[in-house]
Amino acid sequence: MNRSDFETKTDLEEFQKIIGYRFKAVDVLATVFSHSSFVNENKLQKKESNERLEFLGDAVVGVIANRYLFEKYPEANEGFLTRVKSLAVSQPSLAGAARKCNLGGYLFLGRGEEASEGRDKESTLSNAFEALAGAIYLDGGLENATRFMKEFVLNDLIVDEREAKDYKSELQELIQKKFKKRPIYHIASEEGPEHKKTFIVRVAFSGKILGEGRGKNKKEAELNAAKEALKAF
What we know:
single chain; mainly alpha; Ribonuclease iii, N-terminal Endonuclease Domain, Chain A; Double Stranded RNA Binding Domain; 2 domains; 3 strands
């Protein structure tokens, strides 16, 4: 999809109906869909990509999720809230929300990104979703951004005992009980720009890698690595 295809009244109306929000400033909406690969390939100004909106949206998504969980679970401790928030704003969760509104279908991508199926990459989709949340906040305020987040992310959040578990503690207890030792976590690699890194963490025991996890921070990546490792037991 190119810019001229997108910027028709029909396309704009269609997408705004899908997300249930009408933009006062349509230019903000158009920027949401401009991936950096498209901007670079077409030699546009850097500010025309969605990266700045993504930066804003990352904070918006986080604060909305925090307040939602704080009010929904008044008796929950910090550890529980942190783990559930991590699930809510994780890359798979936001990418899933992006697919619900067909966000990938509206992205402007460079030819290389398009060829590598960037339109359905979890990282690309989750970043674009954050940009969209940031754009709605910028255009319509926190109330509209909250309504959007609830519809596409938070209302579908399923919290049960398994999802709220501290997988790291469970894995450590299991290994200590059997072998009297602790698993070791290490960062295998980091991806993305400095302000928006994805951490890849591996957990190992006795020199054997038990699991690998990804996350927006080291803690989230370690939890996901521990979750994968538990499947081996």
